[in-house]
Structures
1.
Amino acid sequence: RKEVEQDPGPFNVPEGATVAFNCTYSNSASQSFFWYRQDCRKEPKLLMSVYSSGNEDGRFTAQLNRASQYISLLIRDSKLSDSATYLCVVNTGFQKLVFGTGTRLLVSP
Amino acid sequence: GAVVSQHPSWVICKSGTSVKIECRSLDFQATTMFWYRQFPKQSLMLMATSNEGSKATYEQGVEKDKFLINHASLTLSTLTVTSAHPEDSSFYICSAKASTSGKVTGELFFGEGSRLTVL
């Protein structure tokens, strides 16, 4: 079983749509969680950290369920510029990040 | 914000040659840097943790004699792919852990990545 699993997609949505990505992780001792965004042939960039209480940053909402070892990312009012691959990332300790394979999002006009 | 610079961004080499990739933290010191590799349509895989002034810690399955890591200063780590072969062709990315005034932030900052093609 992979340490971090994501649906690879792609998710094809029209502009303005709401889309949700899910992620599960296997290491129950994982300490912190992130969503990164990666554009084609570019380095990943931090989108947001994920907190147990859930957190929101503009159109983006992240949720964490430690009991189910499940992380989610919700994007509201999708923009064309949101098209990218979204990586679920888990810090298993000592800043060792484990990346999911990513979920590709394509937002169309 | 913190910036990590990687060089070169793109390199093509012949099989059997060695390639050095540099990772620099431009406006902060990084006692720890990480090297990742990403094959097409796959996730980033941690190769090794680079520690300033000491030996790197390699992940299982990564050959330390093939992927030489040197972290000689608080702002520079290098990855040398020795005797490169076509199967080493990949996207190599470094990241650095930022610390400010002795406090460690939760975020890692990534270099722009280096795309290696071995012919």
2.
Amino acid sequence: KQEVTQIPAALSVPEGENLVLNCSFTDSAIYNLQWFRQDPGKGLTSLLLIQSSQREQTSGRLNASLDKSSGRSTLYIAASQPGDSATYLCAVRILTGGGNKLTFGTGTQLKVEL
Amino acid sequence: DAGVIQSPRHEVTEMGQEVTLRCKPISGHNSLFWYRQTMMRGLELLIYFNNNVPIDDSGMPEDRFSAKMPNASFSTLKIQPSEPRDSAVYFCASSLYREDQPQHFGDGTRLSIL
């Protein structure tokens, strides 16, 4: 059974700092990996999606990397801002008969302080 | 563009009552997912549909839970009878039926069973 873990569970940093969020998964037979952001009382917003054949994806100040063989992904946030405060979740799409099933990590709660 | 629309946003009811959650996916999306989020278990997939057909309902916790998708623009998740341990935030998400497409989430229904 695929298990997805995120470390740390919570993180507090001063504004302007670069930071890395970690995601690990137990079964490397994934189709792709997706990073989401969740604001309090809201749903999930998709940030980046990395196909299993890719090594990284970038969007603005965000960069996500994927090392499928070692079962790891990182989300790098450059020059963090208070508006980046949210919970970040990674999810892997597993190869099943249905093909479109996501398994979510436990999330990292990020707080960027002024 | 309208995103995934869920109703109601909040529901408080007494145990034993029937609860119906509603979801309107993004127009043109042909995959729909129901998730449940709790502090203890995180985000769990309950059931998903492709082209209105249920594909995997292995995440549905008990027979008290049922989901339908009568057409491409509407789905319901029903709990009957409801119990306090069903209290959670229920999310609906939709996507195109392709593994490389991201899922888009609604804002969720916060359900409290007293």
